[in-house]
Amino acid sequence: MTGALTLAPWIPVVPFAAFLIALFVGHLAPRTLPRDGGLVGVAATAISLVLSAWAFLTVSGGTTGLETVWNWVPAGAGPFGLTFGVLVDPLSALMVCIVSGVSFLVHVFSLGYMNDEGEPGLARYYAGLGLFTASMLAFALSSTLVEAFVFFELVGFCSWWLIAHWFREPGPASAAKKAFLVTRFGDYFLLVGVVGVLGTFGTAAFAGPNSFPAAARAAIAGTTNANTFGFGAETWVTALCLLVLGGVIGKSAQFPLQTWLPDAMEGPTPVSALIHAATMVAAGVYLVARIYGLFALSPQAMAVVALVGGFTALFAATMGTVKREIKQVLAYSTISQYGYIMLGLGSGGYVAAVFHLLSHATFKALLFLGAGAVIIAMHHDEDMWKMGGLKSRMPVVYWAFLSGALALAGIVPFAGFWSKDAVLYRALTVGLGGQPLVLFAYAMGLVAVFVTGFYTFRMVFLTFHGEPRSEEAASVDGTRANMRYPVAILGVGAAVVGFANVDSLRSYVGSNALYLERWLNGGLPGVSGGTADYYGGLVRSVAGFHAASFDPLVSAGVSLVFALCGVGLAWAWYNVPDPSERTDVLGAAKTLLYNNYYQDEFQTWLAQGVAEPLARGVDVFDGSVIDGVVDGVSSVSLSGSGRIRRIQTGVVTTYAEQLVVGLVVLLVVVLLLGRWF
To answer: I want to staple 82 with a disulfide (CB 3.0 to 4.6 A). Which of 18, 73, 128, 457 is the partner?
Structure first.
């Protein structure tokens, strides 16, 4: 790598240094640590943001980089080599800007949310934020699947650490364990997939002349041999994609492994912003985008990704309609919105999915930090039914939050409208082009647009409009500057980020105005292709996903109508001085939604009622049958040897007698067999 890209390895190293400083200085000499590590974290993430922006500008000039940093297992030491490196291309450069930018604002916000509130364990908190940021940045810059898996796991560890910040309380401790265990279940599949990739292609490189996506394409084309373990190349590539997808479903909280994310709201709200917008949950979908050259080779895997995404988008949105806590509503919206990203990836909309990842990071960080400001003003009461009337008391937070809500609901011209419509348009055209499963996923995503508009503005009206419904709401007196400014910056971002790729207006503004699409068409180092156009070609020629002709403005108009209907219903029900819970009309369905379709209870029954008895049965079988056979053989051996040992007396005359008797017996047997008698 040359120029600014030589500094790319320092992008994750600087926040890692902040982690070490906060951890050790905070433990050994806490009084010497400015703001308990907060200022160190702010400085470190600011440096990472500057380096990320520099790398971004360098890549925009047509320069990309791929460099090996460490040879973990040299290539000649085994069937394959394992290396750690840095890959700087349009996708990774964009991602590190998102991560470092959001993390910087979260650190600044934390000075007001954590320090000014006198929360305990601040050095530990900022150490966790530093390691979290460093891990996600290193994951985004990883050059191999093995390296990415290491940092993928470290991101999961950091989420456990930060969710359990208030570990002395039962809620955060339980939520952290749940997040760790549920995501680990998905990671088992990913680990098998990583091993499968190495065993099949002999490499885990994302890019370069020996990358495994290129090797997979060559194996399917029949131009090279790969160890597919007796399966056809297409079948085995599909299996590898589905194994990787298992880890993605866990990390990105997709059905059925999404149950950990709502419970993770037990952690500090700035942590929630970082988890939802730019780190933990984003890691899964980013991995699919990173190895999109593999997924684009399998129409079956693509269809599964689209179905999981479309179903999750609707499934999670329905639960957000009845929640009382503001962070719970945002948690289910995160699950739903990442479902849209999965829908985009599964329908061949690489650019649309990355676009929604960018816009979602902006408005979801905004909404969580805005919710955090509200929660502090309400003295940590998250119940929206005890809020109301905050619009005039927190004007900056309100208008910024409204910008994020409009983006989340998909109202033109805010960010979410452009990116969500791009996803839905891609799914619609591919579905009409001969992919009924993708079309079904589109239908679920379209219905989810209405539900999203409803629950989003139900949250806005209950929180900010009407009259105060508690003493805490009536006594709110504004927001500190260190919390207000990050929210205001993100509020502007939610309003303008969408103009990075106004795909619906392509026929009017031309392709030159589609900045993100042009950006993602930058080259991938060492590989012919690796661009958005290259992936589009794979989707068409290999996966067989062809887009039908359809007017994008019609698709955008339908989506906007659905969103406005949802907003209108919320307006009619909740934008009143004294709102009541109108969702009671759902009856038993509301109970089902409020209890999350009883998924936790089902999973508990599955563990205790099925898995545990089965495990006990296997244990009994192992102890009585398997161990019984082994113990029986050993008992016979011990018994026989014990009896034979008795004749080993050590007396020579006894041995002579035994020898003579043995010879006589042998002689009699020989004579009998030889018919001498």
So the answer is: 73
* Pair 219, 272: CB distance under 8 Å: no
pLDDT digits (tens, 9 = 90+) for 147-204: 999 999 999 999 999 999 999 999 999 999 999 999 999 999 999 999 999 999 999 9
- Sorting pLDDT into bands at 50, 70 and 90, what band is 525? low
DSSP secondary structure of 619-670:
HHHIIIIIHHHHHHHHHHHHHHHHHHHTT----HHHHHHHHHHHHHHHHHHH
In degrees, rounded to 5, the angle at the alpha carbon of residue 482 between the alpha carbons of residues 476 and 484 is 55
Distance CA(390)–CA(632), nearest Å, equals: 76
Q: How far apart are CA 34 and CA 37, in angstroms?
A: 6
> 550: exposed, middle or buried (C-beta count within 10 Å: 0-12, 13-18, 19+)?
middle
Backbone angles phi, psi at 203, to 5 degrees: -155, 155
Q: Specify the DSSP element, H or E, that contains 67.
A: strand 65-73
pLDDT value of position 28: 86
For the packed helices 212-221 and 170-201, what is the interaxial angle rounded to 10 degrees? 50
Please say whether the beta carbons of 128 and 160 come within 8 A.
no
pLDDT tens-digit readout, 330-351: 999 999 999 999 999 999 999 9
Q: How far apart are CA 436 and CA 666, in angstroms?
A: 83
The set of residues, in sequence order, having a beta carbon less than 8 Å from that of 493 and lying 6+ positions away, is 362, 363, 366, 415
Coil, strand or helix: which one is 434? coil
- If 0-12 CB within 10 Å is exposed, 13-18 middle and 19+ buried, where does residue 123 land? buried
Question: For 107, how many CA atoms within 13 A lie in the half-sphere containing its CB?
Answer: 33
CB 491 within 8 A of CB 403: yes
Residue type, 300: Q
Q: Is residue 427 within 8 Å of 343, Cβ to Cβ? A: yes
Report how far Cα 397 is from the mean position of its chain's Cα atoms: 28
